[in-house]
Amino acid sequence: MTIRILIADDEALLRMAFSTVLEAQPDMAPVGEAADGAQAIRLARELRPDVVLMDVRMPGIDGIEATRQVIRISPQSRVLILTTFDLDEYAFAGLSAGASGFLLKNTRPEELLTAIRSVAAGDAVVSPRVTRRLLEHLRPHIPDGSSADPDDRLGRLSAREREVLVQVGCGLSNTEIAAALYLAEATVKSHLGRILHKLELRDRIQAVVFAYESRLIHPA
Asked: What is the mean pLDDT of the chain?
């Protein structure tokens, strides 16, 4: 299977660099390049790529809004947010908009390729430990939900599934959750699968976002 990739970045040299790396892979094919958010949305609608590499800061429609619209018009497409700094305040917004993870623009080529393959396979590219660090630094930017009602989707979960979701939201790995809740790791994976299905979430990262936005976990 060839992974079809759309590259969205306002810097032509970066688009060329990404494209060169991708073209050298037997299982990847860059199918389009966009210089801004509006063009990324249009090309995503036309090309239906498997993965979109999405820069955050672009003229006109930025990468956050572009991600939101790409996910809406092409639900099968997975978005990887590209950031300049690993503590970029827009990273959480991108994940909340539907992205499956984030990458630094200066990431090594092999890490980029691994991330693309992981996302194309339906996984998130942010590890639990990195998720923990991300949340620590982005906590001031996470809405506390104090003026909103709790998400009614929480009612779909069993008590045990809520416990697992809390641990996921805190950035624990499946192994760590198993130890904390005295469960087998396979059982944790089963619970997580049911949680994603019941809450209609795409991946583990979206589960973390949901845990905060639903007020199951409070940023404070």
From this structure: 84
- Do 68 and 10 touch, CB atoms closer than 8 A? no
When the candidates are 1.10.357.10, 1.10.10.10, 3.30.40.10, 2.40.50.100, the CATH number that belongs to 141-213 is: 1.10.10.10
CA atoms within 13 A on the CB side of 31: 19
- Fold of domain 3-125: Rossmann fold (3.40.50)
pLDDT of residue 147: 47
24: pLDDT strictly greater than 70: yes
Tell me the mean pLDDT in the region 183-196.
92
**Which residues face 30 on adjacent strands?**
5
Query: Kind and range of the H or E element at 159?
Result: helix 159-169
- Roughly how many angstroms between the first and final C-alpha of the chain, as a whole number? 44
Q: Cα–Cα distance between 140 and 77 in angstroms, integer?
A: 29
Q: Please give the C-alpha separations between residue 9 and each of 80, 106, 112, 122, in angstroms, as whole numbers.
A: 12, 14, 15, 23
pLDDT of 200 higher than 60 = yes
Count the Cβ atoms, other than its own, within 10 Å of residue 44.
26
Helices within the chain (DSSP H only):
12-23, 37-47, 63-73, 90-96, 109-120, 128-138, 159-169, 174-181, 185-199, 204-213
In the predicted structure, residue 150 carries a pLDDT above the cut 90: no
pLDDT over 90 percentage in the chain:
46
CB 129 within 8 A of CB 135: no
Q: What residues contact residue 150 under an 8 Å CB cut-off, 6+ apart?
A: 214, 215, 216
In the chain, domain spans: 3-125, 141-213
